[in-house]
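Hi R.,

Here's the chain you asked about this morning:
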Amino acid sequence: MATQSEEPSKAVDTTTTTNVALAEAIQHEHDLTFWEAAKLYPKAVGWSAFVSIGVIMLAFDPQIIGNMFAMPQFQKDFGFELNGEYVISAAWQTGLSLGNPIGQVVGALFSAYPLELFGRKWTFFSCVILTACLVFIQFFARSLQVLLVGELLGGLVLGCFVVIGPTYASEVCPLALRGYMTSYTNLCFVTGQLLGNGITAGTAPLENHWAYSIPFALQWFWVVIIIPGIFFIPESPWWLVRKGRTDDAKDALRRLSSSKVDVDATLAVIAETDRLELEMEAGSTYWDTIKGVNLRRTEISTGVYTTQVLSGIYLINYGTYFFEQAGLPSQDAFYMGIGFLAVGWVCTVISWFLIARFGRRRIFNIGLTVLIVMMFIIGILDSIPGRPSGVAWAESSLMLIWNGAYDLSVGPVTFVILGECSATRVRSKTIAVATAVQAVFGIAMTVAIPYMINPAEANMQGKLGYFFGGLGVICLAWAYFRIPETKGRTYEELDLLFDRKVPARQFKGYQVDITGASAGS
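And the predicted structure, written out as tokens:
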């Protein structure tokens, strides 16, 4: 009898010891500073940045297409004459620009399947190879019809990168680095756009097909950079744990961290979080992203991503063309486009300091408020009777400031919220759904914007500020009531906060007892 009574006691002791060890491991992750985490996980930072190169490729393509509409040689070879000048019709501008957002819808939703079946590493590899092949269509296109096919097919593959990048970053980086490396996705977007502007500005004066062929060809540069390193990328330990490959997950953690990291403790936290989500019936299908507590998490992820589109970010793809239609000379418009994105790049880097100091919710809401105010000012300036000559430069300068504010706030912090609000078992699918929904809104903007700014159509110029300012107000009202504060929370803590249906405005101060939660299960 004594032996029988001792066995349950031993089981309880073991469970208690395990829970205490988990709590200590989670507390250790909380206590890590940025520099301590960077020293312990330098390879995780490097590989996360490497995989995010795909996002640069994704951003580069629509940027060069948007700039080509203002490129004299492209206008001459593919457009028609209107009042002594060559222009690309609004219908074809829309058609060509649709390739990327349509690709994001289909590609993002499709990418979740190979990501789950084959892992992050080999899905990334496949997308890079396919991109290399499809660039040939764009490079050799000499008609709008062929170019449209190249853009649509290329967009299907490029749409996968925006899911792969933040998913991988959120799964290989510790808590102290998570905000930086997920928001790095926004820096990659801006880098791709900036490079697109710089290259098209450099080739625009050419008076032959190389003016637009060179930008297409330079997409192969990233393929050459990525392929040699792709075989050495460690697979996501979260994905390996879900597949029951614990030894491989441990090996991946060793390859992502320094020798000072307790790999076993980290692996235990991953396994416990996965177990907790299974207990909460968090499955791994698309249906599970909108079932139970995951519905709220998917709504938040989709909402913040869609806000990027509704606040006016799609104007960036038409930045040079917008500046030209606002009244700037063609070459000045190209230079303003470069400055536009250079400011965005610098501000994205500065945003990392804000992300470290302030909460996600505060940065998002205050940043969105500033964007709304500036959009309305741009609209008011454009409504001045007679439209004085200085208005064009004033509107363009305000758009420059608007872009800086966007990349300090809504731009980068969206990707942090995407990675933190999605449950780990359906992270790739939640990000895919959010990407697809924002891309649907992107398609609407891609159809509407050329007609709104084209001189042969609505010719709204700066009055677009009223349109995007109004949409921004709606987004701000939603964000205030729905976006929670996720800064400083582990994935297990976030699972418990969402499971307990804690209101968004109470997330920040809510106390979570991990030991008690684990013991209770």
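The radius of gyration is 24 Å.

Let me know if you need anything else.
M.
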